[in-house]
Amino acid sequence: MAVQEYEAEAAAIRAGVREFEIAMRGRDEALRLSAQAIDDEDAPVPVDHPVLDGAQIITSGPRLDMVHGIASARALRDGDMVLLDFCRIPQAHGYRIGFARNVALRKPTNEETERYEIVQRAYRTAVAMLRPGIAAEEPDLAARAILDNAGIGETFVHRTGRGVGLEGVERPEIGAGDKTKLQPGMVVTIEPSIYYSGFAAHVEDTFLITAQGAECLTECPRDLRRVM
User: Fold this and answer.
1) What are the b/e assignments for 47-71, b being 16+ CB within 10 Å?
2) Do residues 186 and 209 make contact, with C-beta atoms less than 8 angstroms apart?
3) Are 67 and 100 contacting, i.e. CB atoms less than 8 angstroms apart?
4) N or C: which end of the chain has fewer CB within 10 A?
5) The CATH number fitting domain 2-226, selected from 3.10.310.20, 3.40.50.1820, 3.90.230.10, 3.40.50.740
6) Is the pTM of this model over 0.85?
7) Cα–Cα dist 174/151, whole Å
């Protein structure tokens, strides 16, 4: 559902559209998808249940250095970068998801492309470590080391991930200091990120820890999506 909401919002991005209008497009899609998911046995559940709680994180242009900034009245402009983050929006039956992607209204610079790939490398390294028995902090330490070694770690201002479920943030923390051993059945996010005014790289997905490793629940292309 979150991936379909992203596709609906990305299709609405263009110069002149305000951040909150993009968020409204996603909420409309969430409402439609939730209504489809509710069957006769769930009839007492209100159709608008998944969008009663939570405000979407959308930042663009100079607001991209506002970590977890809520969608504002700012109108997008040609040349903007946009971050679409669905962390705070409940999905079916009130369950949360960690999912974010980046959209560009211009070609990124060489420096931005290089930084985006470094963040992608940190993401892939953290994901490859997800398996039962590993301490929750280890993917964070590995991802953070990659960003630090590249000289961009100072803009990574939150943990690499967290548990998700009915609450927006649950244990374990995929962050330094959490020694909890990952176990099959846990659901966690991976989201190493960097934030600058005018540019941000925040790719986030949700993973189910399995007996063999981890399964991505929000599979979707992770490249910097360009719209013209």
Assistant:
1) eebbbeebebbbbbbebbbebebbb
2) yes
3) no
4) C
5) 3.90.230.10
6) yes
7) 22
